[in-house]
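This section describes the prediction task in plain terms. A model, or a person checking by hand, is given the sequence of a single protein chain and must write out its three-dimensional structure as a string of tokens. No templates, partner chains or ligands are provided. The sample shown here is typical of the held-out split.
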Amino acid sequence: MVMHLILVLDTAMAVGAAGLGVPVAGGALCTPDALGPQGLAMNPAAASSLDPELMLDVGMLYSKLEVQLDGQDPLPSSGSWQPIPTLGVTVPLTEHLGLGGLFYVPYGRGGGGPEDGPQRFHGIESSVTVLELDLAVAFTPLDIFTVGASLRAASLSLSTYKAMDTGQLIAGIADVDAEGLVGDPFLEGYTRLDDGVGGAMSYALGAHIRPAEGWQVSAYYRAPMSGVTTADFVLVPSNDLQVEVAGQMETPLNMPPELGVSVSVPFKKAVITPQVHWVGWSSWASFTSRPTGLSAGSSDPVLDGVLDTFGLTIDDLLSGVSEVESFNGNTDIFIFGVSGEVEATDRVALFGGVLAHGVSVPDDVAHPSSLDFATTDLRGGVIWSMGKKTRLALGGDALFSATRDIDSSVLSMTAPPQGTEAVPSGNGVYQLGLSRVGLTWLQRW
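The expected answer:
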């Protein structure tokens, strides 16, 4: 039998051009055509810098989600700031060969709500953080052509705490009508995932082609990244009883493939770079988690009596958690944009850009913990050269997300099984506020 739970938050809340939700180092400084550390988050060919270069970016990401579900009080909401530091380095070994390394946080998200709130079945507390280390090599066989490749390693940590309806689990195991079981306060419990850790590895490819003076065509591909995280798992069938099921839960770590191309065009003292990106979020449409070593820490005659009514035992309840399927329904997206840089003075350059994308989570499977928005990202900043070797950049991203008014979500406990059941339905109005500010230090030798 299968119990449907949402174990991790959908990572598509705020898809940036890096594909994983966080506007990466320097905002508009990070583009497919960029050279040096600031370009490594997209294109490993950026490792072909002319001089050794170090980049330290200290960014802060602000997010606030407001939700008004149909027939429910507005969910409590408050904005929060999250740090997103980035450290990168590129070193030319020869005239034709360069190495690069980048350590950054491509994704981080957390949230919570009251234990007795209407969205407790979606999530009471959740946290997901991804750390990524990229090691890149770039080769320039000709003045007009550079090719690069990188090895990518990611570490993920996660935790979740949410309410669960044991009545639905019993109905599924016993194959009986759920009416009267679903929504019974006595059969409401919770699940927890704690100290979830895991890792994954992948690769990226990239190229720069310079067909004429000042012109550059850039392309990159970041392969999907898959691994497994393992977390301590606790299931309490009823908040009114002293019964606990414990073990571990193995959950896939899936990061989407990404593909992008840009064309840099010189214009007087400026460079304009139109670009398009594809992010394969459909690879995250569904996933299966598997518990291991489950055992009941105690028993209770009241729960035993409920189970006996349906010809079940606590061992049957354990077998009902043999596989956990989560269905997010994600679809692929395209991101279109343009960025540019203009020399204002000998020491000051201005940079900026705009990116726009649609949604990857369709209305019919949307709910507060699986959601994204059609977003326009306005990026801008200033670069100050303190000398021939040191530059400082101050940049920001203002992300304007379209309000989602959803009236076709099928995610409710009483809806026919079409993925992950959730309480209450995801129908309602959603609004997201999102912005980023960051200071970037670039040092050459």
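For orientation: The chain has one domain: 3-444.
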